[in-house]
Specification:
The protein is an alpha+beta fold. It has three domains: 2-30 and 302-384, no CATH class; 37-133; 146-293, Rossmann fold. It contains 13 helices and 15 strands. The chain has helices at residues 2-11, 17-29, 34-41, 55-78, 92-98, 124-133, 166-172, 190-195, 198-203, 206-214, 267-293, 320-331, 359-368, and strands at residues 42-51, 99-109, 113-122, 146-154, 157-159, 176-178, 181-185, 220-230, 237-247, 254-259, 310-316, 336-344, 348-355, 371-376, 379-384. The strands form three sheets. Strands 4, 5, 6, 7, 8, 9 and 10 form a seven-stranded mixed sheet that branches. Helix 7 (166-172) crosses helix 11. The longest helix is centred in the C-terminal third of the chain and has 27 residues, at 267-293. The relative contact order is 0.12.
Length: 386
């Protein structure tokens, strides 16, 4: 307990009982949003294969190639597509400096060859410095969970909870914490089927969609619709797909038509499955791009702006559970560069916040995580909105 005692004397706070435990928790975990940063700056499923005089040499070459691939993928993830032509190509030594960790998910070492699959995490501050030095806009804001609701139409029949169907399968292969988007799929329990039907989802019944989202701890929903048909003139299989967001999800709608080759050698079921995978991947990318654009950080010429302005914000202490929830959520918001405890009493806690992009941008992003930041006559107030 010596380390905690020193921390308490540093803050000079009269802390007893439950507040002592609370202060310990604050001091030890008041750090930037580590989990969100890991998701934004980790690139998975990078594959590399090399040959060389020895397997060890081939492994080293493959690792270098994997790092280059992963950084290129990461920069495209963070920067809007309209600026991809301006993305830098860094020397191998600089790329290596930016790597925080490399997880080898699969590998095979042969006498003169190597192949592997990697997950590589980069230093967030270093990557931001690279982008800001070149004046490139970017976003590393990871979305709160968004529930995907896939509605499939074939031969005039709508399917939402009826499984299996190719549209549901295609989305289940894509959900999870990927890049800047965090998506989940509803399980389709009987109770959930009573909350929203296929027709209600397509009509955009926001009350029911949000109720379903909230049951999964999500703050938004995206209705993904696909209509499969065969063009009677050409014999080509077609999927007409669209995606519409509610809550924090980008609204769109995003829509596109996907065509397969005529003949359908594997039959209509295989054609529907292949087109569904293509459509789900494309709409997911469009939603990720829209999320990126609505959460952009635009670099400024002022060096003082790099870490964002510092503000003091008070949080009323109504009960310990709500306060602990606030603490957990703050750590997940990349717009909060870092924070520390400035004051703690039985009635309120005062946080010192360093906000990237300024208070106005932070207010919008915090609201996506259920946190409100408001300014009044007595200063800034931070509340857990649910």
């Amino acid at each position: 307990m010596q380390r905690y005692a020193r921390a308490n004397r540093q803050f000079g706070l009269p802390i007893k009982g439950a507040l002592m435990a609370l202060a310990i928790m604050l001091v030890t975990i008041a750090l930037p949003g580590i989990a969100a940063a890991d998701q934004a700056y980790t690139v998975r499923d990078i594959r590399a294969a090399k040959t060389a005089p020895t397997g060890i040499a081939a492994r080293q070459d493959a690792m270098r190639e994997a790092r280059d691939q992963a950084l290129a993928h990461l920069l495209r993830r963070l920067v809007p597509s309209s600026h991809h032509r301006s993305l830098p190509v860094l020397p191998a030594s600089r790329v290596a400096d930016l790597v925080v960790s490399t997880d080898i998910e699969e590998e095979q070492v042969l006498p003169t060859a190597y192949r592997g699959r990697f997950a590589i995490t980069f230093d967030s501050a270093g990557v931001r410095q690279v982008l800001e030095a070149r004046g490139l806009p970017y976003s590393d804001e990871v979305s709160p969970p968004i529930v995907i609701i896939p509605v499939f139409e074939r031969a005039g029949a709508l399917q939402l909870w009826e499984r299996p169907n190719p549209w549901d399968t295609a989305w289940r292969q894509r959900v999870g914490a990927q890049g800047l988007l965090t998506t989940v799929m509803a399980e389709g329990k009987p109770s959930e089927q009573l909350v929203v039907s296929a027709d209600q989802a397509l009509e955009g019944n926001e009350e029911r969609l949000q109720a379903l989202a909230q049951s999964y701890g999500a703050r938004g929903a995206a209705v993904a619709f696909a209509k499969f048909r065969v063009d009677p003139r050409t014999g080509q299989p077609v999927i007409e797909a669209s995606l519409t967001g509610y809550g924090v999800a980008p609204q769109g709608p995003f829509s596109q038509t996907f065509q397969g080759s005529a003949g359908m050698e594997g039959g209509p079921d295989e054609a529907a499955a292949e087109l569904a995978e293509t459509a789900a991947a494309e709409l997911s990318e469009q939603m990720a791009e829209a999320w990126k654009r609505q959460n952009l950080t635009v670099p400024t010429a002022s060096p003082a702006a790099e870490s964002g302005p510092e503000i003091l914000a008070s949080t009323p202490l109504t009960h310990l559970g709500a306060y602990a929830s606030m603490l957990r959520q703050l750590r997940e918001v990349p717009a909060v560069e870092r924070f520390s405890l400035a004051k703690l009493t039985s009635r309120e806690a005062v946080f010192r916040l360093w906000l990237r992009g300024g208070p106005s941008q932070a207010q919008r992003i915090l609201s996506q995580y259920g946190i409100t930041l408001t300014q009044g006559p007595d200063g800034w107030t931070l509340r857990n909105g649910g």
